[in-house]
Amino acid sequence: MPLTQDNLLQDIPEKSRRDFPRIVNRLLGQTFLYQDVDGDKDDYYFIHRHRAAFESVLALTGFNLLHDDYHRIFQVVSEYSYSRARYKLDESLMIVVLRKLYEDKTEHLSLASDPVVTIGEVREEYRTITGKERDLGMGQYETLLRRLRALMIVVLRKLYEDKTEHLSLASDPVVTIGEVREEYRTITGKERDLGMGQYETLLRRLRAIGLIDTIDGRNIDVRDAEARLRLRGSVRLILPIQSATELEAWLRKYRAGESEPDSEEE
């Protein structure tokens, strides 16, 4: 049987096939596709529904479609080195800093058991706590939950099995700018810190990729040591480091490389 578009996309409805090449290109051109980002959501669900077709098409060209089930993130990774992003050393170091902070924070968050509730349960608990039989109006609920979602306190989930909307109490780790700077000095072993301009450039770059975000959605102010950053689950996926052991090995290699020029000069 000849390999044709109809064969590859036979399980996708005719009207939806026009979106397939656009979404494939987006996967290749965008590092991550998130379920909880409004601009990504429709394409995320499209990929999830037709995952087998995407996997087949991408595999033909040497790419693997990966999915983080917990954080609901799609990512495409090349089996070859041609299409991989190249990060500067300071960018890689900052990613490792964020990854280390993420791992440290999640030990205390118990992410695997973050609570998920239905909208109905929220409304019932609201009536119970307030002692009022009269419920809030739909518009009031919508305004309140949108506000909490903007603050990263809750994340709206639509589960595939029953199409019911759920709220996941967001538990992505949150760190301060001060903690990021302290961890950078710890990891690099250097007392001298990066300049404010360097921090601002690095963190803006990593925010654009989707690894971090501010709690209130505003610009990152690196001069405010107490300003908080939300670390997204994708910070664990961006580098080919899968375990704490690999992370430590990477750091040892970096530190050894940094110490060699000094020893030669002495």
What does this structure look like?
With about 270 residues, this protein is α+β, with helices and mostly antiparallel strands. It has three domains: about 70 residues, Arc Repressor Mutant, subunit A (Orthogonal Bundle); about 110 residues, Arc Repressor Mutant, subunit A (Orthogonal Bundle); about 55 residues, no CATH class. Helix content is about 50%, strand content about 15%. It is built from ten helices and nine strands. Helix 5 crosses helix 8.
Instruction: Determine the strand fraction and express it as a percent band.
Output: 5-15%
The string of secondary-structure elements, in order, is: HHEHHEEHEHHEEEHHEEH
- Derived structural class: alpha+beta
Which overall shape is indicated by the principal axes computed on the Cα atoms? flat
Please compute the radius of gyration using only Cα atoms.
22 Å
CATH superfamily descriptor of the largest domain: Winged helix-like DNA-binding domain superfamily/Winged helix DNA-binding domain
Report the average pLDDT across residues.
76
Low-confidence stretches: 158-164, 261-266
CATH class of the largest domain: Mainly Alpha
Distance between the termini: 69 Å
CATH architecture of the largest domain: Orthogonal Bundle
As laid out across the biggest beta sheet, the strand order is 1-3-2
Largest sheet: 3 strands, antiparallel
Helix content: 40-55%
Count of distinct structural domains: 3
- Give the strand tally: 9
What count of helical segments does DSSP give? 10
CATH topology of the largest domain: Arc Repressor Mutant, subunit A
